[in-house]
């Protein structure tokens, strides 16, 4: 098979990027926490899997109140994860293997330990230091009530009151996530200037682009008025408060960042990528972020959140193709990430051995995603078919959502448990066997069934499904960027063509599997083992027999 020819300046349009949650990927030092040297050691594994690049979760200096999404210094490496020298070694190794590297940048908020915020706390009301953040007087005769009724995404009010230098209660500051994550004020010119320096620091070290956290945030309504539906804000982690998210000024930021990336591309011909975490109500709103002079990509979460239903999947795919691909960008598909319940559990409770309805559906969804036009992002461990760890004891939970709400609902620790690499017992090769050192989150015994060494040895495993799908995606000119055409199918079946001679067909029902639409199966996610289901949940890639 001859790989398709991809223009180097548009590598991102149909790339498959692997999300590395650094602290849970591979530990090289024996302290129970993954690190950059561990990522470097795992690069040959990722090269063998066949991904085009990696996205690294935040590794910057941080007090880790939200596992690095509370950044204290945007231009360094936290000693827990290594140092800048180790980062440079990682970049060099990735370059040798042809793997792109994206960094996670957090421009909406920083850590309460960031020097700029500490300076703001020490400065008086109305100062330039406080103007970099959202400080405001409280309401009521003594200012004891928050400036407005906004809720934080992780629970509780979005405001915290400070104690002024004279010891008296003072102003309030805004934090849309936790009190340890104050929001930057992007209306102050010093903030965009600061992030210009951050972008150039890492671009000068050779990175291929950035995943942008909370890309629809940054700007808040200048008057900071009350929300009209604060109860809705409190019920969801999605960005629903229109006064705090998706303000029109944010698009000017992405135009500027795109111009910075284009400046570097003009120097050496390597196109740098901006991909945004954009949570907005509709695909049409989503499309505004990927116009030709803004972000290259924005994650399309509607597929991730769609119920396992043929009509729902067809609707979200059609809307994405019409509204997003119509901008000249390509759709960026995702089925999971570090904030979501793992796919096999979300689709139906799996057994520890890796069978069951959720497993069958996750395998079918993986092939469907890889067959769709555009780019795809794969969260670490999805290629192993890892289920969510749902029974972590309260005393090991670290998610600030749990600390803020006291509820286990929507917590994210279960998808962040360190990966199993080998062996029959924890730490499953994740960390060296230093006496008394354990992975930062406990791994269940059944992780042995999903360990990488076992997956590589079993040609029926999730890993081989992903690897074979990625190889075919790279080799078949019909896949990757392009368009699709829906086919008429029996009830419960979704099918479309990609170019000439290739069909993707997905059976959403558990009824007996229908006959393939045409041709011969190229790659299949099923059928399930006898006795697991009445029928099977299956995806095929089908050609006319002339490819592959």
Description:
Helices cover 27% and strands 13% of the residues. The protein contains 15 helices and 16 strands. The protein has helices at 36-49, 84-97, 115-122, 128-131, 190-204, 230-235, 250-268, 283-288, 302-305, 310-323, 343-346, 357-371, 400-405, 452-457, 462-475, and strands at 16-20, 53-56, 100-105, 135-136, 159-163, 169-174, 209-212, 273-276, 297-300, 332-334, 375-379, 485-486, 493-497, 502-507, 520-524, 538-543. The strands form three sheets. It has an eight-stranded parallel β-barrel. A five-stranded antiparallel sheet has the order 12-13-14-16-15. Helix 2 links the parallel strand 2 (53-56) and strand 3. Helix 5 (190-204) runs parallel beside helix 7 (250-268). The protein is globular.
Radius of gyration: 24 Å
Low-pLDDT sequence parts? 1-8, 511-536, 543-548
Strand order of the largest sheet: 1-2-3-7-8-9-10-11
The number of E-state strands comes to 16
DSSP summary: helix tally: 15
Question: Helix content range of the residues, please?
Answer: 25-40%
The biggest beta sheet is recorded as: 8 strands, parallel, barrel
């Amino acid at each position: 098979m001859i790989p398709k020819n991809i223009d180097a300046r548009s590598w991102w349009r149909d790339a498959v990027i692997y999300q590395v949650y650094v602290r849970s990927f591979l530990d090289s030092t024996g302290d129970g926490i993954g690190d950059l040297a561990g990522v470097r050691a795992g690069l040959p594994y990722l090269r063998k899997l066949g991904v085009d690049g990696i996205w690294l979760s935040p590794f910057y200096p941080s007090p880790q109140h939200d596992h690095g999404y509370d950044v204290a210094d945007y231009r360094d490496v936290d000693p827990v994860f290594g140092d800048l020298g180790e980062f440079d070694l990682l970049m060099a190794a990735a370059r040798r293997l042809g793997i792109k590297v994206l960094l996670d940048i957090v421009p909406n908020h920083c850590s309460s330990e960031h020097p700029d915020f500490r300076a703001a706390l020490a400065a008086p009301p109305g100062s330039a230091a406080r103007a970099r953040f959202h400080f405001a007087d409280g309401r009521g005769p003594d200012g004891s009530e928050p400036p407005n009724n906004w809720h934080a995404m992780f629970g509780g009010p979005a405001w915290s009151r400070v104690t002024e230098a004279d010891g008296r209660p003072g102003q309030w500051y805004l934090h849309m996530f936790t009190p340890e994550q104050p929001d930057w004020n992007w209306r102050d010119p010093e903030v965009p200037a600061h992030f210009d320096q951050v972008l150039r620091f890492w671009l000068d070290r050779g990175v291929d682009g950035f995943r942008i956290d909370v890309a629809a945030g940054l700007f808040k309504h200048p008057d900071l008025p009350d929300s009209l539906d604060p109860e809705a804000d409190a019920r969801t982690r999605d960005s629903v408060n229109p006064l705090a998210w998706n303000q029109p000024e944010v698009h000017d930021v992405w135009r500027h960042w795109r111009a910075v990336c284009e400046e570097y591309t003009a120097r050496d011909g390597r196109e740098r990528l901006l991909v945004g975490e954009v949570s907005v109500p509709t695909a049409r709103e989503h499309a505004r972020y990927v116009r030709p002079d803004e972000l290259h990509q924005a994650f399309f979460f509607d597929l991730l959140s769609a119920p396992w239903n043929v009509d729902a999947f067809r609707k979200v795919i059609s809307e994405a193709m019409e509204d997003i691909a119509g901008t000249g960008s390509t759709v960026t598909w995702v089925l999971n990430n570090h904030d979501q319940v793992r796919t096999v559990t979300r689709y139906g409770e799996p057994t520890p051995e890796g069978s069951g309805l959720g497993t069958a559906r996750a395998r079918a969804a993986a092939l469907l995603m890889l067959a769709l036009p555009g780019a795809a992002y794969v969260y670490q461990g999805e290629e192993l078919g890892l289920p969510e760890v749902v029974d972590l004891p309260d005393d090991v939970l670290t998610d600030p959502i749990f600390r803020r709400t006291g509820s286990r609902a929507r917590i994210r620790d279960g998808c962040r448990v360190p990966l199993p690499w080998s062996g029959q017992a924890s730490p499953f090769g994740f960390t060296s066997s230093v006496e008394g050192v354990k992975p930062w989150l406990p791994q269940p015994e059944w992780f042995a069934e999903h360990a990488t060494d076992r997956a590589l040895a079993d040609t029926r495993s999730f890993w081989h499904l992903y690897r074979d799908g990625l190889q075919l995606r790279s080799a078949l000119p019909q896949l990757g960027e392009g368009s699709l055409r829906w086919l008429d199918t029996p009830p419960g079946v979704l099918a479309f063509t990609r170019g000439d001679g290739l069909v993707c067909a997905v059976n959403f029902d558990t009824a007996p599997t229908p006959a393939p639409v045409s041709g011969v199966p190229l790659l299949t996610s099923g059928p399930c083992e006898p006795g697991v289901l009445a029928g099977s949940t299956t995806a095929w890639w089908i050609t006319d027999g002339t490819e592959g």
